Amino acid sequence: MNERKMKRVKVRGKHVILSFVCLVLGFMISFSYQFTKQEAANGNGKPTERQWTKEYEYRNNLIEQEEKNRELQKELVEKQEKVREIEEELAKGEQEKIYFNLVEDVEKLRMYVGDVRVKGQGIQVTLSDSSYVPTGEDVNNYIVHESHLFKVINELYISGAQAVSINGKRLSHDSYIYCNGPVVTVDGNPYPAPFVIAGIGNPDVLIPALNINGGVIDQLLQDNIVIKVEKKSEIVMEPLLQTNE
């Protein structure tokens, strides 16, 4: 009997402890649930004052950045407009420069073909036959030929001569020169020696070009040609195509 009573007491004691543990555990679960619910309401429900402050700051920063972007965009458009205006001015200047260069080129071409009157400083080169022909020598080796004229004319043009004439006959882009017996024919007009070649240009450039060692003058001297070079302050050449009024 005593043993049964003792077992019952032990069983009741265990039930009491177990009930107490369950009570505490239930209380803890309930408290945790209520606390979690309140935190969730504070976090996902109505925003806290701190969250309102942060959102307000973020919104103000965003508005300020958008305003700055609009100002920068406006400034960019103004700069682009100024660039276009500058480009247009440069284009006009380039066009004027191009037109000026074209007019200048046309004027030079007119000089070369002989369409306009030309006046300026230059040089005059006189080529004469040799006054002495040794006995038994070929006379042709001591007279001026068209090849000698070509050497002088080509050197003058290469050195920058604006216009060239032979015995007063102005040359053009389609002029022709050839020997015809004792005379040289220039564009169908026969001219006897001496041959006076005039070139309008800078004398300080034309004369040294002819006097280069081994150049035109040295070659002509080797061919027994008499040469005379003069500097002229003014040479005038009339247009090739003239109209009589």
From TrEMBL:
InterPro entries: DUF881. The keyword Coiled coil applies. Residues 55-96 form a coiled coil. It comes from the Bacteria. Keywords: Coiled coil. Belongs to the UPF0749 family. This is DUF881 domain-containing protein. It comes from Litchfieldia luteola. The lineage of its organism: Bacteria, Bacillati, Bacillota, Bacilli, Bacillales.
